[in-house]
Amino acid sequence: MALAYDGAIQRLIDAFSSLPGIGPKGAQRIAFYVLGAPDEEAQRLVESITEVKQKVRFCDVCGNVCETSPCAICADPRRDRGTICVVEEPKDVMSIERTREYRGLYHVLGGAINPMANVGPNDLNIAQLLNRLQTDEVKEIIVALNPNIEGEATTTYLSRLLTPLDVKVTRLASGLPVGGDLEYADEITLSRALEGRREV
Question: Where are the zinc fingers (C4-type) (predicted)?
Answer without folding.
Answer: 59-74
